[in-house]
């Protein structure tokens, strides 16, 4: 028991170093700014390592870390929205009225979704997380995750015209 | 997977990573490690106080016996068994609570049965109530300082039990409550029943009148052995004003392992820094 914490901590360091690219991309998808995304990743790592005692089971490492990462991203996103002129942060994401005839690429379409739906879809399809893990990482329950996923998929179908069944 | 997803995923992963990412990550790892060490030192200072709170005395109140759906788990012959009387989860904005509450069934001794069960029940009710109050206060503070309600990370509480020993002679089980907020903290309660005698068994019963001396010796020797085995194993030795292990308590928590050997349990922080976790020592009579 006493050694496990040390082992988990070392695993966590390895996991963080190996996953840095994923963390950065996810953070970037929220804050849409390179320096801010770097900040978010750094803050998350510091928080995670200094609290690594609270991670008791290595199998929850990913959900546990993503929970911190998502929290930091959201905090930053909110702070950014308060401090930075609106057009800088939101210009790209303010969804222009969709031309019903225009078919968007899936990746671009994703940006049109509500943030919470984006999160679920990114974690599910880009980070290969199970719905249960997503529920843990976003501290919501499984049903909420499912409903966000299906809502998001439905919107994506409308935007892209593609059949996008959950894998 | 659908090919549209493959394409989107490829685009997602192709996004350029900034050159300084690796550097930034390495810096953050170092900073995190430093903070962790700092927190450990802090905890060591808080350890005495925490250990004091954790060992609160048992209060035996009389209350009606348990109601509720009864479904049983392990059967211990005709004499006794531990059953799960209540199993529930609470999932709301403030907490995620998972409880598996045990109760004792003793064919021959309803007094003892009732006493132990009441004690378990009272203790868990109290513990959950406290945790709930704490969760509410924490969330109010979080919101008051500008956090959004929906971002509050709920407190996670788990109550569970484990049967450590069951034979014709003894029944021993451990009840744990773990609360996770920033870091996890587990409280442990142990119950050891001498079945033929129909009473709770003490270390004195098991180890004889010299039980304290015997146990203390065994624990000191084992601490020295563990420290010698790995330099990462550290126990308090009175440095920084934090008293380490001196002696087992009169009401020392212990359980009986599968071989019927008493195992003394110290909670996290009690005799060693937090990263060492819970500490257990077998005391071979």
TrEMBL record, chain A:
GO terms for molecular function: DNA binding; sigma factor activity. Coiled coil: none annotated. Residues 21-82 form the RNA polymerase sigma-70 region domain. Transmembrane segments: none annotated. SUPFAM superfamilies: Sigma2 domain of RNA polymerase sigma factors, Sigma3 and sigma4 domains of RNA polymerase sigma factors. One of its GO terms (biological process) is DNA-templated transcription initiation. PROSITE patterns: SIGMA70_ECF (PS01063). Residues 104-156 form the RNA polymerase sigma factor 70 region 4 type domain. Pfam families: Sigma70_r2, Sigma70_r4_2. Keywords: DNA-binding, Sigma factor, Transcription, Transcription regulation. It comes from the Bacteria. Belongs to the sigma-70 factor family. ECF subfamily. This is RNA polymerase sigma factor.
TrEMBL record, chain B:
Keywords: Membrane, Transmembrane, Transmembrane helix. The keyword Transmembrane helix applies. Pfam families: DUF3298. Residues 205-283 form the DUF3298 domain. The chain crosses the membrane at residues 41-60. This is DUF3298 domain-containing protein.
